[in-house]
Amino acid sequence: MRFYAITFDKVVIRFYLMMGVVLLGMFSGYYAIALLALPIFLSAILGVSFRAETTAATESKVLPMAAARESSLEKAA
């Protein structure tokens, strides 16, 4: 579970889902159902992603400074 890891369209979908749960609870008369909108609201505000976290690659694609200087000098020559 990661925070602030979802896109804006998923936040909007969660807000629509939250409003649907609230309206369902209010119009049906079961006000306790409307309380189920709270976790949906918090997940939308915090941008919680429920997907498994991916591990970062062990090898960096960024060249070290010395190698970068050498390659730029070779290109200039």
In short:
Helices cover about 60% and strands about 0% of the residues.
Summarize the SSE layout with pairings.
Elements lengths: L7 H21 L2 H4 L2 H10 L18 H12 L1
Helix pairs in contact: 1-3
Would you give an account of this structure?
The protein is mainly α and 77 residues long. The protein has helices spanning 8-28, 31-34, 37-46, 65-76. It starts with 7 loop residues before the first helix and ends with a helix.
The biggest sheet, with number of strands, parallel, antiparallel or mixed sense and barrel status, is: none
Q: Which blocks of ≥5 consecutive residues have pLDDT under 50?
A: none
Q: Describe the global form.
A: rod-shaped
H and E order = HHHH
Structural class: mainly alpha
> What's the mean pLDDT score?
81
Termini, distance in Å? 50 Å
Number of helices: 4
Helix content: 55-70%
What does the radius of gyration come to? 24 Å
Beta-strand content estimate = under 5%
DSSP strand tally: 0
Key structural traits:
0% strand; mainly alpha; rod-shaped; 77 residues
